[in-house]
Design brief:
alpha/beta, 5 helices, 31% strand, 6-stranded antiparallel barrel, 18% helix, 5-stranded parallel sheet
Length: 272
C-alpha cells in the first residue's frame, strides 16, 4: 500500500560491504554500507529506499547467496533454503560520497527480549565490518508541489530515517510540522536539522502494548495545523499511513494529490 513510487530509470544490484555501525539511541542502529558499486547508486528523492539482502544472523550456512541482478526473485527461487538471504527494505538515511558509502538506519524491535527480535534487528545488532550485502534501489515517493507553503511529515519509528532525511534536505522556504512517534523518550533526537520555522513534535510511546502509529495518528487529528496549502508525507505502520490520509482528505479537505503515504509494515506481520 503506497502512493505512487518513482522508481529509478536505471538501476543495478549493488555488491557492498558493511563499513561500520553505531547505535544513536536504544531503539535505532545506524549501519554504513560502502564499496565501489556505490557509484552506480543515483540520488533521487529525499525518502529514497532500497532492498537490503543479508545473511540470516542465526544461519550457520558457509556462504549465503547474494543476488546479482534486478531479477532477484528468480535468482533466489533457484537457491536452497539455507543459502537464501533475508530481504528487508530500508530508507537511505544519508549519503557519504567522500567515502563511497551511505547510511541506513534500522529501527530495533524487541530490545528487551532479543530472542524474539526479527531478522533485521538481529542482523543490525550483531553485524561486523566487512560483512557482504547486496542492495537494490527502489526509488522514492516524496514529491512536494511547488505551490506548497509548508509540509506535514508524520511517521512512527520505521519512518524516522526517511523523515529526518527529508528534513535535512528540504529547502529553507519549506518549513515542516513534524509528528514523530518513537518507542521511548530516550529515542528523541536533539540534533535535528530542519528548515527555519519547522516544529518537531516527538511522541514517545510509553504505554505498554500500544500499537505503533496510533499515538501519531491521534496527535495529528487533534492538532491545530498552520494555514495555507501544504504537502504531506506520512509513512510507517499501514494503519497510520492510511489513517492520516483518510483524516486529511475527509476532515480537512486536503487534495489526495498533496499526500504521499506509504505503509512500511502491518503490525504483527513481517514485511519486505
Amino acid at each position: 500500500m503506497a502512493s505512487r513510487i518513482q522508481r529509478p530509470r536505471k538501476r543495478r544490484m549493488l555488491s557492498l560491504t558493511v563499513q561500520g555501525s553505531e547505535q544513536p539511541s536504544p531503539h535505532f542502529m545506524t549501519v554504513t554500507l560502502g564499496g565501489p558499486d556505490v557509484q552506480h547508486l543515483q540520488r533521487s528523492g529525499f525518502d529514497q529506499a532500497g532492498r537490503l539482502f543479508f545473511a540470516d544472523p542465526d544461519d550457520n550456512a558457509a556462504e549465503v547467496f547474494l543476488p546479482s541482478s534486478e531479477r532477484w526473485i528468480l535468482q533466489l527461487t533457484l537457491q536452497g533454503g539455507k543459502q537464501r538471504p533475508r530481504v528487508r527494505t530500508y530508507s537511505i538515511r544519508r549519503f557519504r560520497p567522500e567515502a563511497s558509502a551511505f547510511d541506513i538506519e534500522i529501527s530495533l524491535h524487541a530490545v528487551d527480549n532479543p530472542g524474539t527480535a526479527a531478522p533485521g534487528t538481529r542482523w543490525a545488532r550483531t553485524v561486523e565490518s566487512g560483512t557482504r550485502v547486496a542492495f537494490l534501489d527502489e526509488g522514492h515517493s516524496y514529491a512536494p508541489s511547488s505551490s506548497a507553503a509548508w509540509q506535514l511529515l508524520v511517521g512512527d519509528e520505521s519512518a524516522l530515517p526517511a523523515i529526518l532525511a527529508i528534513l535535512e534536505q528540504s529547502p529553507a522556504n519549506l518549513p515542516a510540522e513534524v509528528f514523530l512517534e518513537v518507542p521511548s523518550p530516550e529515542d528523541i533526537r536533539s540534533d535535528v536539522k530542519a528548515p527555519p520555522g519547522s516544529i518537531v513534535h516527538w511522541l514517545p510511546r510509553t504505554a505498554a502494548g500500544a500499537k505503533p502509529g496510533a499515538l501519531a495518528l491521534d496527535a495529528v487529528k487533534r492538532a491545530r495545523l498552520p494555514e495555507g496549502r501544504f504537502y504531506t508525507f506520512t509513512a510507517g505502520e499501514s494503519s497510520l499511513a492510511t489513517g492520516i490520509r483518510r483524516h486529511l482528505v475527509g476532515e480537512r479537505g486536503v487534495a489526495k494529490s498533496d499526500i504521499a503515504f506509504r505503509g512500511y509494515f502491518s503490525h504483527g506481520r513481517a514485511s519486505l
